[in-house]
Amino acid sequence: MNPHGTLIMYVCHTLIGIDTQMFSVGPDFKGIKMIPPGPHFVYYSSSTRDGKEFSPIIGFFVDAGPSEVIVRKWDQQEERLVKVPEEEEERYCQAVRSLEFDRHLGPYNLSQYGDWKQLSNYITKSIIQRIEPIGGEITVASESTMRVNTPSTMMEKALDEQLNSSRHKLLESVLLEDYGGSEDLLLAELQFAYIAFLMGQSLEAFLQWKSLVSLLFGCTEAPFRTRSRLFAKFIRVIYYQLKQGLQKDCSDTNSGSTLLDDSWFSADSFLHRLFKDFFLLVQDASVVDGDLLSWTRKLKELLENNLGWEFQQNSAVDGMYFEDDDEFAPVVEMLDDPSSSVAPSV
């Protein structure tokens, strides 16, 4: 049995993306084959015949099963992909199994699958069903233009109402009330939101991602006391998100990463301030989890090397890189957690 799935799409004069891959397709294109099982994000933008103008991106998550055929058909009137009736879908499935469409299907680039897994390893089918909007479509075209100043998600309302409260208490409250105490659910929503705004260009998703990032980086005690494992995993997620965003921003001008422009990564951006404060926090901590320290170093190097950001605190020695025999270095604790991720070697 073929372990990979197939996505059938009848479109023309369209940019089609799946995960970190983008295709410019013509009339012979009928879909994508060799899709690994698991969650994926599909996004597209229709163009005029001359290819000079494009509509806002529309995206949706799918969970592909082994040998599954997922069918979407272009609705000319609504200018979007729609599901087809069950009987019609079955006919397409049979045609795929008999290889009738094979020469019209573009292959999923399996060499890029690892990049996608790093961006989506906490996302599952149940997560998609829990978070996706009604109808499943993610597009800035259906979002309110006045959304910026009006918090509407539970996370944003909590932040708006408790700006002066303890971030540690707020984090614990959000984890318990919104995620049933599951750290991985929070990280899954962080990944979902990032993918939706990076590739789907959703403003609402960006605001949700920013709220989560601001909440976590605003905690001064949890990273070193009660939630070291969460923060080690969180920094790992952020590392791969920014690594992918920077890579696509530099090398793929047709990708969905246009939100990551120069001003987004300027030295006075909210991210720079958050990172600077957090790195100083880790530098001054007396005890730091080993995984957290490793991924923090990796993140700091990524930002310094790719963006030229500087985080020196008026010192000739970078406090993030202590010598082994430095008496002022923080104590590194290795927590016995089989699910912990080890930072890759540089």
Automatic annotation (TrEMBL):
AAR2 C-terminal domain location is 167-312
A Gene Ontology annotation in the biological process aspect, one of them, is: spliceosomal tri-snRNP complex assembly
Domain annotation AAR2 N-terminal: ranges: 13-133
Q: Which Pfam families match?
A: AAR2, AAR2_1st
Sequence similarity: Belongs to the AAR2 family.
Protein name in the entry: Protein AAR2 homolog
Organism of provenance: Prunus yedoensis var. nudiflora
Q: What is the lineage of its organism?
A: Eukaryota, Viridiplantae, Streptophyta, Embryophyta, Tracheophyta
